[in-house]
Amino acid sequence: MSEFKSIALIPAAGIGKRMGASINKQYLKLNGMPIVARTISVFEQSPLINAIYLVIPAEEIPYCQKHVVEACGFSKVVAIVAGGKERQNSVMNGLNAMRDFVSDEDVILIHDGVRPLITEDALRESIRIATLHDGALVAVPVKDTIKTVHGGIVTGTPPRESLWQAQTPQTFRFGKIFTAHLTAESDGFCGTDDASLIERTGGKVHIVQGDYRNIKITTPEDLILAEAFLEVMDRERNQC
Question: Which of 94, 131, 137 is nearest to 113 (CA)?
């Protein structure tokens, strides 16, 4: 297989209204460190990752540069890109920013900026799967029974064994995901995640078994849970 680079694209351009905080959720402290900084640090410390692109609201770029990237000494962050109206637009901005510096065969790991508990094993397997198939999606089987509902009335109960909860990273060769985003943009299609853009073009995205602790921090309760998970994960690493 030809040599390729692995590049993290981290969108953190959301406002986070559900958090109810005075600052955007990515800058809230998780055990003394901004959430987005903890997320970046996973990719910064990974020998698998060659570079990191951040996507941040345009007005926050100076703050993020000074209080996150420079304060934490992140050397792999090569660009901070202005976000777009929706997450899909933000990811496209990031892909456009790197297009002159990557090849179609390079691997892009698209990962939520407020999902700081991703593991090195998940990164490794995501990269491996993305080099073999159209894409890799970190996900976990749903635990609860899911109902389809219309007008407040249950209309069906999908078989639980076929349902998985999507997480990130979602990982693809650059050429595949960039083309999928261009096609979606041209068609006026807005997907709920990047994998859905590959799916609608006929691509087959393969599952990478994730971890239930890889949560997206969206509410105050999520932050409490993440602090507990982080403590457990630190203990596990120290025992190795």
Answer: 94
